[in-house]
Amino acid sequence: MNRQLLKYNLKANLSMFLSFLGITLMYSTIATAMFDEEASALMQQFVDILPEPIINMMGFNNFGSELTGYLAAYLYGFIMFIFPMIFIVMLANKLISKQVDDTSMSYLLTTPNSRVKICTTQALTLLLNVFALITINVLIIIIISVIAFPGQLMIGRFIGLNFVLLSALIIFSGLTFLVSVLISDYGKAVGLSSGLAGFLFIMNMIKNLNDDLDFFKYTTFLSLVDSDKILSSTSYTLISGGVAMIIGISVYVLSVMIFNKKSLTI
Prior knowledge:
mainly alpha, 13 helices
């Protein structure tokens, strides 16, 4: 890892990070602050008006009457997937494929730093941004909950939910980073990464339609973020999150190895 490059990356991408952090925090804080049992019941009544397939696809089929279940249904069926995934696609491709495509990578490679060190630093930049995006949201939600609704948030279960979410996003960010390494054309890399994000997200929505389509969960690792299982089973949380984390890190390692051997025309 190159510390100077890491600092530069974090500073150069800070505005984009803050933009997505602001979007996710807006939804997180509003959703948390507006909670009460009556509001949750009213929200459920409103959602029940919608066609059942749409309710299931969006993950809004059960808001519950307690804070943890309400947040899981409101935020972790759509919002905490889609915005982090868009952010990951943009940042991952900016860190590798864009720099190869516009030849700025050549300047990095002329420095006394190995390809492994450069690529590892770029990967760490992406990982730190994803980790910070989820962690800050979690901390803000917990703080609001403790102040406004003391004792109502199951903090351990809520952290477990976000652990599995983070692990799934690390797999996705690893795959997106791999695409960025494999494809030097920035436009094509962004297109393929966006297509991957769309496929995974749509498959996750389809598997929620009804029990007959449950087999679609095997086509997307986003299905690991099963709030019902996570909130009721510690073993599921630890196993699914741990395995996903290992897979995600392994994809990053593979990406660095490929970048080290890849022939670059820059």
